[in-house]
Amino acid sequence: MRKHTGEKPYCCSKCSSRFSTKGNLKRHLKTHSGEKPWQCNRCGGRFTEKKSLNVHMRRHTGEKPYQCKMCGKKFAQTGVLQTHMAMHLDQKVHLCERCGKAFRQKSQLRLHKLRHDNIRKYNCVNCPANFLTKGDLERHVRTHTGERPFVCDVCSRTFTRQQSLNEHMNRHYGLRPYECKYCGKTFAEMSACYKAFKKEEDV
Description:
The chain has 3 domains: 8-63, Double Stranded RNA Binding Domain, CATH 3.30.160; 64-119, 2-Layer Sandwich (Double Stranded RNA Binding Domain), CATH 3.30.160; 152-202, Double Stranded RNA Binding Domain (2-Layer Sandwich). 11% of the residues are buried. The termini are far apart. It is α+β, with helices and mostly antiparallel strands. Helix content is 43%, strand content 14%. Belongs to the krueppel C2H2-type zinc-finger protein family. GO terms for molecular function: DNA-binding transcription factor activity, RNA polymerase II-specific; RNA polymerase II transcription regulatory region sequence-specific DNA binding; zinc ion binding. Its main location: nucleus.
């Protein structure tokens, strides 16, 4: 039920991050302790979780268990497959009646409408900044606290955003899930893909 209610009763005593389950808190605490009990028997790389080791092992074995049903391309991680599928399903059915811009998801349209109305109800207690969403505020607060809760299992580098960690991991695993639909080039980071897209679009 906590998944639906958003309740997060388990709090980290080191950085105040909150979690919905005790197991998630336990895994998070390893990022503070530096504990990495899972080791790769091929290259010696160490990981905080077994699932991270399993994903890493696919670099050595070449295993790609997740396949796109539309084009047959295979991937080592489900997240990369999902990003790839979004490019196939370039369907934007939710239309903004004010400006005509279309979105794939209703939630994206809802957020877009807030930008039109400039409704910023989430206020930072440390400075005058205010934000459209709670997530935007939480990311901003980390600029004040210095908190970097997202930790790379491979090199221990830390990040303020999950997206930044995901793109960093792409570099470790040699993944380039973002593809420019104009030039066909692939990228590890969404921002690099967007730059290529805009460059081709402006030609």
